[in-house]
Amino acid sequence: MTFKVFILCVVATSFAAQYTDKYDDINLKEIVENKRILLSYANCVLEKGKCSPEGKVLKDHIKDAIETGCKKCTDAQRTGTETMIRHLIKYEPDIWNELATKYDSTGEWRKTYEDEARKYGIL
């Protein structure tokens, strides 16, 4: 492999190492305050309903994000993830439990995220 090809591969891999930031400015407050919208996203990632374009992106990356501690997330995505997890644990435990069962059947990651939520006073 030539050096130029190697560099192109490294550059391509580094861009692929982060999720798209296309939806980083999504209004999470609107989602958590509107049960219909929240359920729409939940049903999308639970494969119980249709997905909006941003919901599809979420569904496509949620398992990887959970398993890697959101390593490929932008700062906005990390903050948004924390906001949503705290909200779901505190106000929507049924949705949280369904998501946890689907994407973390062993409970490994659920414990991590629930421990993090406890730091914010969310039980």
Protein described:
The chain has 123 residues and is mostly helical. Helix content is 70%, strand content 0%. The chain is built from seven helices and no strands. It has helices at residues 3-16, 28-33, 35-45, 53-67, 75-91, 93-103, 108-119. The longest helix is centred in the last third of the chain and has 17 residues, at 75-91. The relative contact order is 0.11.
Index terms:
123 residues; mainly alpha; globular; disordered N terminus; OS_D_A10/PebIII_sf; signal; A10/PebIII; Ejaculatory bulb-specific protein 3-like
Summarize the biggest pleated sheet.
none
Q: What overall geometry do the principal axes of the alpha carbons give?
A: globular
Distance between the termini: 54 Å
Total DSSP helices: 7
Helicity, as a percent range: 55-70%
* Contiguous uncertain segments of 5+ residues: 1-16
Strand content: under 5%
Protein name: Ejaculatory bulb-specific protein 3-like
Pfam families: OS-D
Organism: Papilio xuthus
InterPro entries: A10/PebIII, OS_D_A10/PebIII_sf
